[in-house]
Amino acid sequence: MDMKTAVNNGPSPSIDQTDTKRHFMRTKTVDSLWGYFFIFPQLVGLVIFSLIPLILAFAISLMSWDGFGERTFVGLDNFLGQFKDPDFRTALVNTLYYTVLTVPTGIILAMLVAIGLNKVKGKILYRLIYFMPNITMSVAVAVVFMWLFNADFGLINLYLKDWFGIEGPRWLTDTRFVMPSIALLSIWMGLGGSMVLFLAGLQGISATYYEAAQIDGASKWQQLRHITVPLLSSTTFFVTIMSVIGSFQVFDQSFVMTSGGPAKASYTLVYHIYDSAFVDFTFGTSTSAAVTLFAMILTLTLLQMKISKRWVHYEE
Questions:
Q1: CATH number for the domain that contains residue 151
Q2: Distance from CA of residue 268 to its chain's centroid?
Q3: pTM of the full predicted structure?
Q4: Residues 42, 163 within the same domain
Q5: 237 inside domain
Q6: Are residues 238 and 305 in the same domain?
Q7: How would you write the pLDDT of the chain (316 residues) with one tens digit per residue?
Q8: What is residue 1's predicted lDDT score, i.e. its pLDDT?
Q9: 302 assigned to some structural domain
Q10: Which pairing describes strands 72-73 and 63-64: parallel, antiparallel, or unpaired?
Q11: Do the Cβ atoms of 285 and 78 come closer than 8 Å?
């Protein structure tokens, strides 16, 4: 080989470089295989218990089926029937009312409690106490609150009469108070979970912002309004989405405490789905209501994500 040819071809790769590249590719392949191996059980569970039931739900929503006999394809008749059904409209109104009662109040209270516990001694203990209702079985909590809300011998009405001389309302049997009563229970149960999220958000705010504000003479209220709340907007956004999704799925409280009454004043969308499926045995109608609920939640979530660009701020 002459000198000119050697210069044009350049230096040939060494054997060590080739072996190193092969070893790197082999290691990467092995790591990928191990990764797929460890997530395989979760993927199987996701497909069997989530993806396949979701597809079947969409299919059954287009059919007329009592759960036992033959399935008859009816197209969109189940969905059209839902919007003509007075029970569905009642459930939708009650669910929206419940959402309005619980979501803003729960978020504000959780943020205030988190701010109050952020720098106090023993905050770990307080955090545990506030979070305990969040992990307690909702049915057990509902049974306890049935006793508290009892109009004749419940503790709430007893204290109202002894301390303030007020005759308490019939919390769970009056159409005006039943949904606020359920909302009060739900706010108490969910306060701890939202509070922990806000506490995590507060830990991520740099102290330099507050130090600079104090140097400029900002009051505590001004620091809260112009520093804490804006920098917690990303946490507030997440808590809002999760709270709205949870509020549209409320069922346990109304099922245990009131059975959807009185006069369907606590009849929610999920209760309507349950009632259509396991009381009336109209699984096609029930599934169409579930798919409609899914579409509502998805639409609200996408809408919140679009609007969030205007008010959510991230610390840089």
A1: 1.10.3720.10
A2: 17
A3: 0.86
A4: no
A5: yes
A6: yes
A7: 444 444 455 555 555 667 677 767 778 888 888 888 999 999 999 999 999 999 999 999 999 998 888 899 999 999 999 989 999 999 999 999 999 999 999 999 999 999 988 888 888 888 888 889 988 899 999 999 999 999 988 999 999 999 988 888 999 999 999 999 999 999 999 999 999 999 999 988 888 999 999 998 999 999 999 999 999 999 999 999 999 999 999 999 999 999 999 999 999 999 999 999 999 999 999 999 999 999 999 999 999 999 988 888 776 5
A8: 44
A9: yes
A10: antiparallel
A11: yes
Tokens of 151: 């109009």
Residue 283 has which token pair? Answer: 């699984």
Same domain, 89 and 30: no
181/32 same-domain check: no
Whether 114 and 147 share a structural domain:
yes
Residue 70 falls inside a structural domain:
no
How many folded domains does the chain comprise? Answer: 2
Q: Does residue 137 sit within a domain?
A: yes
125 is written with which tokens?
Answer: 């203990």
221 is in which domain, residue-wise?
79-311
Q: Which of 60, 90, 114 is the last residue of a domain?
A: 60
Same domain, 187 and 290: yes
- The C-alpha atoms of residue 266 and residue 270 are separated, in whole angstroms, by 11
208, 260: one domain:
yes
- Are 108 and 246 part of one and the same domain? yes
Answer yes or no: are the C-beta atoms of 73 and 62 closer than 8 Å. yes
